[in-house]
Structure formats: C-alpha cells, structure tokens
Design brief:
By secondary structure, the chain is α+β, with helices and mostly antiparallel strands. Helix content is 17%, strand content 29%. This is Flp pilus assembly protein RcpC/CpaB domain-containing protein.
C-alpha cells in the first residue's frame, strides 16, 4: 500500500515537472543598443560688422531735379555698416546723367534711393523744371556726331543758318535774309536759344530707320513756351542747327541779349530778329 502511494507521488511530481517545463517562457533576448550618431555642427564665421567700399559723395549741395555730371560728385573709399553697403552708389555709370530725386547736401554719401535713372518715367518728371516743356529736336545724319558725344544733362545752343541775298524785280531791288543762303560765302549762323539742357537722347533704332532715312535720332530739350514759339516759327522756313553749348550753366531764359561780337553780324528790321534781342519775332 505504501509502495502504491509512492508511485502515485512520483507520477504527480513528474506531471508537475513536465508542466513547468512546457510553460516556462523563453528567455528574453538581450537589448542591443544602437550606436549614438555624432552630429558635426559647422558654424559659419561671424559676418563682419563693417565693410570697406568706394562710394559716390556729393561734391557740393545738389538741388532736386539736378541732372548729375562729373562736377557734382567724387568717389571716396570708406568703412560703412556691412548691412547698408549695397545701398550706396559705387560706379560712375550708375550716377552720370541720373537726376536727383531730392536735395542732397555736400559731402553726403549718395544712395540709389536719392536718384532716378534716365530710362524711368520718374526721371522725365523730375528733370523738367516747372513751367518748362520737353521739345524734340530731330537730328539728321550729318549731325549724328551729336548723339555720340552728348549725354543727358548736357547743354546745347541753337543757331539759325541764314544769309543776305539781293532780290531784283521789275520795280525794285532789295536785300533779303534767307535760310540758308544759296551763296556759301554769305551764309552766317546766329544763336537764337542758348544754354538749354538735354532731357533725353533717343537714337532711332534699325526698325524705324527706314521710315526716317534722313534722320538718326531725337534730342529732347527743356524749353519754355516762349522759346518753343520762336523755334517752331523759325523751323517753318529756315534751317536751325544744334551745337554743344558755349555756356557752363543752364540758362533759364535762353533768349538772351546778343553779345557785342554777335551784334556786328547782319541785322535788319525786315529780319525775324529785332535789333536788341533775339527773343522777339517781327509782329510778335
């Protein structure tokens, strides 16, 4: 009886052992840690706070509407804030013939915001004085040199080409002024409008040269109403020519008195000129 109990006990222990064997969980695999990536941080060198640049500087007080020439500015190499270096003008090509949009004091560093380009609509509005008009002067092929040598803002003088001729009819013989004279020797030129500013130069392109075979471009002048009246009247039956000006500054009234030397040229009450001024047409 005792032996049977032992056998039963052994069988139970065996069953419990087998149960534990099959129910035992499989070992957890070891955790493999990933290698830590090392990031290389590249830091840019600090930007310089200042920069050495060459800047256009006003040589004198510049009034609004002034067209810049080389007499109005000079270049200076200096140190400025690096963040603002790009706003300053550093090339003559970026200021010559441009117009001042505001008054600029002498010794001021000139910025792009202070000026307007000749190709802009703002330029035309600023470069014409109050009460003045833009008048186109057509340039012929024989005067093409003007387009190559003159620039916006330059000054020009206008002359009339004329000469005296004797006209004989059945009843009377009289001297008359004609433009131009048929006799080269008697041809003269007389200044009629002087010291006038060029607003804009417009060469003719290849596309429109066919329709303007005898002209090469136009020069837009700043003229007063009275100056235009004289010029247009002369152009109806005379030859008017343009030359670079002999005056250093723009003359508000280009219809000035003749100099003593010019007074010695032929004058006549029958001419379109008066004896004292060139700004009066007969009957005007």
């Amino acid at each position: 009886m005792k032996d049977k109990k032992l056998i039963v006990l052994y069988i139970l222990m065996l069953i419990v052992g087998l149960a534990l064997l099959f129910t035992k969980s499989s070992p957890t695999p070891p955790v493999v840690e990933k290698p830590v990536e090392t990031k290389v941080i590249v830091t840019e060198p600090p930007k310089p706070k200042t920069q050495i640049v060459t800047i256009a500087v006003a040589k004198k007080d510049i009034s609004e509407r002034t067209i810049f020439t080389k007499d109005d500015y000079y270049f200076k190499t200096t140190e400025v804030d690096a963040d603002s270096a790009e706003k300053y003008i550093n090339s003559a090509n970026e200021i010559d013939a441009y117009v001042a949009k505001q008054n600029i004091a002498a010794d001021t560093f000139i910025q792009y915001d202070f000026i307007a380009s000749p190709s802009s609509s703002e330029y035309i509005a600023l470069s014409i004085k109050e009460g003045a008009y833009m008048f186109p002067f057509v340039i012929s092929q024989t005067d093409a040199y003007l387009l190559k040598n003159l620039r916006n803002g330059d000054l020009v003088d206008l002359y009339v080409l004329y000469g005296a001729e004797t006209v004989t009819s059945r009843t009377i013989t009289e001297d008359k002024f004609v433009s131009p004279s048929r006799d080269f020797i008697t041809n003269r030129i007389k200044p009629i409008i002087v010291g006038k500013k060029i607003i804009f130069i417009e060469p003719h392109t290849e596309d429109n040269l066919k329709s303007r075979e005898k002209t090469v471009g136009e020069i837009q002048l700043e003229l007063s109403n009275q100056e235009i009246k004289l010029l247009r009247t002369l152009m109806t039956n005379s030859t008017v020519m343009m030359y670079p000006s002999t005056f250093e500054e723009n003359i508000d009234d280009g219809l000035i008195l003749l100099s003593d030397k010019e007074r010695t040229w032929p004058l006549s009450d029958r001419d379109i000129f008066s004896g004292t001024q060139i700004n009066k047409l007969k009957g005007n």
